Amino acid sequence: MLRAENIWKVYNPGGKDQVVAIRDLNLQVGENEFVSIIGPSGCGKSTFLLMAAGLDEPSAGKLLFEGQQVEGPSAKRGMVFQSYTLYPWLTVAENIRFALQKSGMELSAQKSLVEEFISLVGLRGFENAYPNQLSGGMRQRVAIARALVYRPQMLLMDEPFGALDAQTRRLMQELLLNAWETHRTTVLFVTHDIEEALLLSDRVYVMTARPGTIKAEIRVHLPRPRQVEMETSPAFLALRKQLLGLIKEEVTPHL
């Protein structure tokens, strides 16, 4: 569904302060896959995700979605950021329904779909609450529901749980797993958290330190459906050790 071919991102090319953020990056994401990208801070993970969303452009290379060059944002690709990008003047239900306003769907059908996704993310009873009345985890649930409700073909997630406490983060991971198992939307997920990447993903791409490129591709052969408890299994721990070693190789030379 998404294919990156020899992607480069260079800031201020040819200038004294030229920065090569991404160098010759190649990856692909298949339909209905859950794929994560991990790597050291500043390696270009979020930069690549913005390009996949059509919010930034590569300096060189091809970035294809369903075989067509990515040229700007598209309703086919939903985006969830780390920050809570909700409209403060809209309620939970209104924030979620906002994504459906240009769908051409009848209002009754929109409301029914919004109710379905409010239930999916565990916010029944908070339909009329405003963002400032919600916890951080609840706000991110709204953001996820809003991104999923119009059924994008691909969901791009940029460290969506990074600002949450450990307990809330675990609950959100389980919620996302449940939502993904239910709807099987293709997901490209950026995270710093190795355990999170393994718990959620079919495959994990590891990036090098800047300039970022793909260092390794790890297939996660863990049974689904998954639960947080499997993080103590021998198979999970072996994959965690492998990924930790790959990341350590990139971080250590820069310490």
pLDDT under 50 segments (min length 5)?
A: none
Order of helices and strands: EEEHEEEHHHEHEHEEH
Instruction: Determine the mean pLDDT.
Output: 90
The CATH homologous superfamily of the domain at 2-76 and 152-254 is named: P-loop containing nucleotide triphosphate hydrolases
Structural class: alpha/beta
Q: Per CATH, which architecture of the domain at 2-76 and 152-254?
A: 3-Layer(aba) Sandwich
Shape verdict: globular
Please identify the top-level CATH class of the domain at 2-76 and 152-254: Alpha Beta
Can you tag this structure with a few keywords?
10 strands, 4-stranded antiparallel sheet, globular, 7 helices, Rossmann fold, 255 residues, alpha/beta, 23% strand
Q: How would you describe this structure to a colleague?
A:
The protein has helices spanning 45-52, 92-98, 107-120, 136-149, 166-183, 194-200, 234-251, and strands spanning 2-11, 19-29, 34-38, 60-65, 68-69, 77-80, 154-158, 186-190, 203-207, 214-219. The strands form 2 sheets. It has a 6-stranded mixed sheet with strand order 6-7-8-3-9-10, with helices on both faces. It has a 4-stranded antiparallel sheet with strand order 2-1-4-5, with helices on one face. The radius of gyration is 19 Å and the shape is globular. Strand 9 and strand 10 (214-219) form a beta hairpin. The mean pLDDT is 90. It has a domain at 2-76 and 152-254: P-loop containing nucleotide triphosphate hydrolases (Rossmann fold, 3-Layer(aba) Sandwich), CATH 3.40.50. Helix 3 packs across helix 4 (136-149). With 255 residues, the protein is an alpha/beta fold.
